[in-house]
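User: I'm putting together a teaching handout on how multi-component assemblies are represented. Below are the sequence lines for each component of a complex, exactly as they appear in our records. Could you produce the 3D structure of the whole assembly as structure tokens, so the students can see both representations side by side? Please keep the chain order the same as the input.
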Amino acid sequence: MTLTVPQNQETEAQILERLDRSPTLLDVRGLCVDYVTEAGNIRACDEIDLTLKRGEILGVAGESASGKSTLLNALGRLQRMPAATSAGSIWYHPGGDEPAVDLAALDEEELAPYRWTKVSVVMQSAMASLNPVIRLGEQFTDVIRTHDPRLGEKEAMAQAGDLLTMVGISRDRLTAFPFQLSGGMQQRALIALSLACDPDLVLMDEPTTAVDVVMQRQILDQVLAAQERLGFAVVFVTHDLSLLLEISDRIAIMYGGKIVEVGTAARLHHDAKHPYTRALRRAFPPLSEPVRRLSGIPGSPPDLLDLPSGCAFAPRCELAMPICHERPPELREIPQGRSACFITNGELDDAERARQQAAASGDHAPKGGESA
Amino acid sequence: MTIRALDGVDLTLYPGQISALVGESGSGKTTIARLFALIYRPTSGELLYNGTPIRVRGGRAERAYYRNVQLIYQDPFASLNGLKKIRTIISRVVKIHFPRLGRAGIRARAAELLERANMTPTSRYLDRYPTDLSGGQRQRVAIARALAVNPKVLLADEPTSMLDASIRLDVLNLLSDLRETEKVAVMYITHDIASARYLSDRINVMYGGKIIEAGSTESIISAPVHPYTKLLLSAAPDPARYKGSGKPTHEPIADSRPVDNTSDIRGCRFADRCPVAMPKCTSEDLPLFRSIRDSHTVQCWQAEDDADYERASSDRSRTPKNSAKKE
Amino acid sequence: ACGGGSDTETTSDPAGGSGARATEGTIDNDGILRIGATVATSNVFPENFNVFGGGDSAPGNALFWETLFRISSTDGSKLVPNLAESVEYTEGGKVATYVLRDDVTWNDGEKFTSKDVAFTYGFIFEEPGTTPDENGNLPWLAKAIETPDEKTVVVTYNEPQYTEDLPLSLYFPIYPEHIYKDLDRQNYQDRDPVGTGPGRLKKFAGQQIEIEIRDDYWGEIAPELTEVHLIPSGTAGNIESQITKGDVDWSQGGAPGVVTNFVTMEDHNGYYYYPDGSTRGIIMATHKGPTQDVAVRRALRAAADMSIVAEAAGIAYTVPSITGLDTGIYASMLKDEFKDPMTPDLEAAKKELADAGWTVNEAGNLEKDGTEHPLKLHIQNDNPAEMTTMPIVVDQWSKNLGLKVAFTPLPPDVFGPAQAKGDYELSLWTTNAAGGAFQAFTMYMHTKIYEIGDETADGNYGRWKMPQAANDAIMAITTTPPDQVDQITENCQILQQAVADEAPYIPVQSNGAGGMFTTKKWSGLKEASEIDYFPRVDGYNNLIRTVTDLTPSKA
Amino acid sequence: MPRSHRTWTGRLAGLSFLGQRLALYAIVAIASVLLNFILPRFMPGDPATQMIREITNRTGAPPSGYQTRLIKARYGDPDRPLALQFWDYISQLFKGDLGVSAQYYPITVTEMIGKALPWTLYLAIFSTILGWIVGTYLGARLGWKPGRRLDAIVTPVSMFFSSIPAFWLGLLIVWYFAYTHGWFPNQGAYDNSLDIDLLSPSFLLSVLHHGALPFFTLIIVGFARWLFSMRNMMITTVNEDYVQLARAKGLAQNRIRNRYAARNALLPNFTGLAQSMGGALTAVILAETVFIYPGIGSLLTGAQAARDYPVMQGVMLMVIFASLLFNFIADSVYVLLDPRTREAN
Amino acid sequence: MLKRFLLIGKVQVGLAIIAVFTLVAIFGPWFSSTVLAMSPQDVDYKHLTGGPPDSTHWLGTTSQGQDVLSWMLHGTRTSMLVGFASAIIGTVLTIVIGAWAGFSGGLADKILNGAILVFGNFPTFALLFIVAAAFQNANWLLVSIVIGGIEWAGGARQIRAQTMSLRGRDFTTALRTVGESRARIILVEVMPHLLGVISPLFLGLIAAGVNQQAALAFLGIGNPSEPSWGLMINWAMTQNALFRGLWWWFVPPGLALCLIGFATTMVNFGLDEITNPTLSSKRMKLMRIFLRDKARRAAAQAPQEVAAR
Ligand SMILES: Nc1ncnc2c1ncn2[C@@H]1O[C@H](COP(=O)(O)OP(=O)(O)OP(=O)(O)O)[C@@H](O)[C@H]1O
Ligand SMILES: Nc1ncnc2c1ncn2[C@@H]1O[C@H](COP(=O)(O)OP(=O)(O)OP(=O)(O)O)[C@@H](O)[C@H]1O
Ligand SMILES: [Mg+2]
Ligand SMILES: [Mg+2]
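Assistant: Of course. Below is the structure of the complete assembly, with chains in the same order as your input.
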């Protein structure tokens, strides 16, 4: 089966305009998530503020352990032991005149009507996400019928078949057990499943890392095609910044449990405001641009149990200024996005920034280095 | 059931060069690396080292072989014994291969090796356990261990795929530097064609146990012939095609089934997914075409009409005397 | 001993057990007597009454099978007529002529006749003949058993057999010829016994055996008694608990402590102990180790107070005389100085040892001439009473002589063969068999001295070679007709003296039959002095005699 | 792929799994038969000599000539070549002939086991299954929301329960409930005065009454291990992605717990059930000796006390065969429950 | 790992119990003879039919007037001796067979795995019973050999699986490809990784050994002159302690058996919590506290918010 390939014809301005017009879907305020461990509480998401518009594709990128999955699970209210949302709210706007609800404040029962019909998820490992001892069909129909009890088993099954066909899997596989499908098929089945109740938002946590580039591309095409047709919003988490640049309307960069920069793909591509974003960008060799020697980010990711007092990235940052080690910068609105770097977020006035930068170039050289 | 993981592969590594091996999952890349590392044995054909066939089995000869050829594993978390100190891990190899060095000599050598792998100051790492190190650091320890024997050939099986984006480049750069300083031949196995382009001098593209296209990095990237190579290139994410750039994305991709290595197929294994497949792709043996200008070779009928290519031979996968050699 | 009954005053005899204090029953009598059968730990009955088969037969078989004579519990084990009216020995004891009762029928209605006896004795004694076999043994019978008429049986032996009726009366009941003659006797699984006894099998219920009492039995049985049920009793505790609850009326045996626990538990509970003439004792090796020295043997014997031991056992057995003979049963035969139960004499013991040059060293071992000899007491570990008592004996040796004898209980499979081989210096076993002067010392006849290492030793595990005079005396008993009591007694006293002097064993316990009962439903068990049988469940005739005496308790 | 075809091959896959297990059990069975044959022959003394001594011990006199000859004829000639003896043994076995009891000659071992085995199976099967159900149910409950007060109490308590040796607990229970208070009978499988009649209510009631203490004991010592494994498996399963996905789907809590979490967590407990039957028989054998229950445990200990090797061997063989049979039944159920064994690709 | 393991309360309790019993096994008989001045064989003529605990006999006396505490102290030695000896034998077999099968692969593995499966599916107690019954009067060493020789299958299966996975693990292949010899890989490099599996196996085998010995002794198999817990229960039962109500005779040895079993269960539970952190009860507790604090904070905030409005 061949799919229509997304054409990427919008310009950055058009994208921004579309987002602007679109009503807000999700409004995250001050969301904090902790992992309660014997060693101490790990704050894997710290004061996350985020706004998601209807139909928007938001990419989330960052190093391993930066809190991407944690954020996603918190948005879907899917944390499991030992994670707990410790503060903040997730305002969901149902649209129309209905008032917004704070998903973070609902208990499991109150959440039920929102699950899957409003917010659905695609997890990283399809193999682990499908129940190995239940036939594929039932894993579709149970959710379909839970949310639309009027449907009979047959109709639900037919609907499930349609969903599978949409992602290029023949409907007779409904009687198969998950282990009878190949990895790529499972992943696609999971995507089909996520669309079963026509959600407003699909949370995707690295849905393609386990598969081959070619398969990855194919799955993405299917997601994007469905998204174009159904208009749901997507939060897409991955390591792979190159990939995010290709598919997201906006991208949020996470570092040490915080969002450090938000911007459109275009802006992040040529005008990233945060040194971490730029370093991350450089870590992916291009395919079509001329080859030059690139370098990775020195040092190692921060230990969330023992975060530096200032900006978490400061120890690895070439441009770190004295103030960066003193207090964390705020995530502030900047043109076409947000940034949490003293150099670019406008928190410091120009004079102060110049003074700081001068001080930095004095003892320059990134601190930390290879400290492990 | 037999799985033909490799099927008539010719692959040559040259000193001071990095050859990349790219291809989809299950195409046989690891199998090649493990063949070279004598972990697997070929069912037919032979391995040549410096032109002589390798026929070692255990013992002294195997040790001698490993003095020249070393493998770096994909997962640095698994390839180091977590219960041994870095010092032990490295000096043990030194001791095996240079027993006459003496205690102090081995000590010095271990430190020197870590230094070569950019692990400075070495004293900070020697007495730690692998579990105390980050992935990138572990991979560098693994490389240092491989360097302990002064190898002529390094086989790096996806050395960065388990590593975080931010540290991946350091490992690649280290390999790149070793090519220059140690004049080793490196085989770099990867999924990621962009990193292959970044690092290597040559690229070999594998599909279904065969090397379907090989050539200098430049020619493979800029002038691919085989439809699979093209597909690989277009499927790989490219930051330059960022959303809003207006740049068209890739071509549509046919339904992709993973390659089926169990069936005995005549001709091209890619034919059933190939947008430009012809009847003869599966009815005739696959010929090998060679570029008239450089060392670019391709196993695909697409090259038949291309003026740049001449037919070198027919598919030799059925003939038993294939060889995979290193010189 | 004593029995409880509605019409007899209850008494208590420290040696014989203690009777029920209540004189009246409490439960309506349903005509069923329930007897607790000691069936090891399993209550799966063998459904087989063929006592001539190889293995254990079902309990209660004594209600079906009877012997020609039974052995009196008094009067030096005299024969008491049973199915036979009399026996006469002629030709110097070589011919025994039996006269049978003629009012006996089998429980299937057939008449009991001499041919049944001939049939039964025929397969016991096997083929007659007068030529010795390859081992030089003559066949038992000189010629086939004759039955001149329905009432008379003539058995002709090759040698005088005055004592042969004792084992015959103990172990060989008469079988019905009309049933068994065509059967493979040994391999026949008898599920429907046809016997002369009062019992007729009603059924093998899953967990008990139900036996009806027939009306046409030749003996007398209380008319109220219609059925006897044999009920398995897995452990000692279970028997005691069942009797206490009234589920079982009577059971043989008694666990350690029965006199202090069980009897006091309920007014109706009672316990008795009747010595049967046999004795358990500690056999001392006369062929090896320090016990070769008679002084050591006598010292060991004199250094333990067996009455304390008896008390600890709590099953009301008595201590025999130093000869090993029971002081009650053999009262008329015992020499005057041996008429009382054995008593310890510590001073004598120490003196014996010292005189013979033995010392007890630091480690508690006997020492002589610089070599020390550790001693072990071996017992078979499956007898709870002995497991209780022997540690006390060992402790007494330790306290009295400073001698540390290792207490070593062994499983039967290990104990038996090694004892037979004579491996042990001290081991607990039966030292005197029941059944009269001859039986009491039969294992010590010179013909029964076995080489060490031999697999069997016929009871003389200590390899004691009795003085020639004693051996002559025991041989004389076999050739003395049973009615010449004085001559037998005289010979017996020679034997007594030999045992007292040479101390081949330490008598511990007058063996016998203990029994527990409740008078809730049945009473009438008699005093030992009133009866000439043992109230036991096993052993032919005893069960029938006991049942005969029982009458319903008054509610 | 047409559906019928798939289920057909699916069934084949399940069968081949069972076939493999069956082959394994066949090997175990053969091994145990061999062991059973060889072991008594390693023992000191041959059965015939054993028997003679037995009689001597019992009657105080050695068996008479005819008895001795009979015994020797019956228990085989120890000088016959081992291979031939083994052949005799095997061919007898195939005829269902386990030999003749030495203690209760001439009753056959088959008859004795036939009377005892049903009781043991009744105890073993019901106590194991009841314990399994109780343990698994509680475990599923505790594991669904671990760390609550109920969990904090029940888990350690059952940990202690699981460590109690069955025979000892049996003793305590007999002592207290049967001897001291007389609330329950202290021996037997039913009232002595009753006949076996599966249709009679009074018989059945009596069976329940007599079985109460053994069942109680076996369940107390047996349920806890199921509780732990189910609890732990449940906790692990609840953390599995597919359960999280079920949560995300907004399914009813009950459905998530039962259909998604418990169902999957149950699988290891099933394998465990299969493997536990052998062990359960052990506990039952020990318990029977305490409760004087007329099963093969009592038979076995009685036979061991009397050195009745034919019975011991027969019982062992039965125990082994029974536990293999249970293994196989549980394997078959497992195939029904876990499609992965059934429809492997 | 080890430290974390030792920090778990359950593990501490479990190990402490085993340590205490081990100490009693070592010093108990000495304590009995010097402090109590009694041996199990000594008879107290004042208590010839058994007496409840009092000041001279802290755990009472048996029906032959012997001191139960002395019995317990000596019995602990035999029981623990059997436990340790059978565990050592079983563990050695477990390691040798499991590691050999796991490492060699091929035919050797097939055969060994067959043996593991056969023994694993064998009702071991049945086998133990006949073997032990065959060796009448078996002393503690023989019983240990029999128990150890039978109880290895479960562990060997684990070790085999573990070594197979270790063999397939990159680091062993890596060692081969640097020219390390195979023997050294197994003995020096891989063995330490098995410790995590072996140590709980060892503990489990101790408990199994102690229990099996007790069960055998309870059934009257084994050496009746070696005081052990099972023998105490056996004697108590055969000498009618139940009916006579001499509970102090059979309760202590049974409790000791329970405690040994309990200890290993605890340790294994702790181990589970280490290898599978979701099972960690400590973590569950922390979580409960965290959520409680959060709820408190929310409750404290709510009125303030109302006031602010
Ligand atoms: N179950 C857990 N227990 C304790 N800490 C956890 C747990 N899961 C995650 N963390 C910690 O939370 C932080 C964020 O983890 P998270 O999984 O969200 O990262 P991520 O960005 O998704 O990383 P990756 O790219 O590797 O998936 C990390 O420091 C991690 O160590
Ligand atoms: N141990 C094995 N047993 C069976 N088949 C194997 C084994 N190892 C490899 N194969 C098969 O051989 C083929 C080549 O595998 P190989 O691991 O060399 O691929 P690869 O290109 O390295 O894949 P990846 O990119 O996933 O690492 C695959 O089809 C695989 O299924
Ligand atoms: Mg993640
Ligand atoms: Mg690979």
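A couple of points students might notice: Residues A 68-69, 205 surround magnesium ion (ligand 3) (CB under 6 Å). Chains A and C do not touch (no CB pair under 8 Å).
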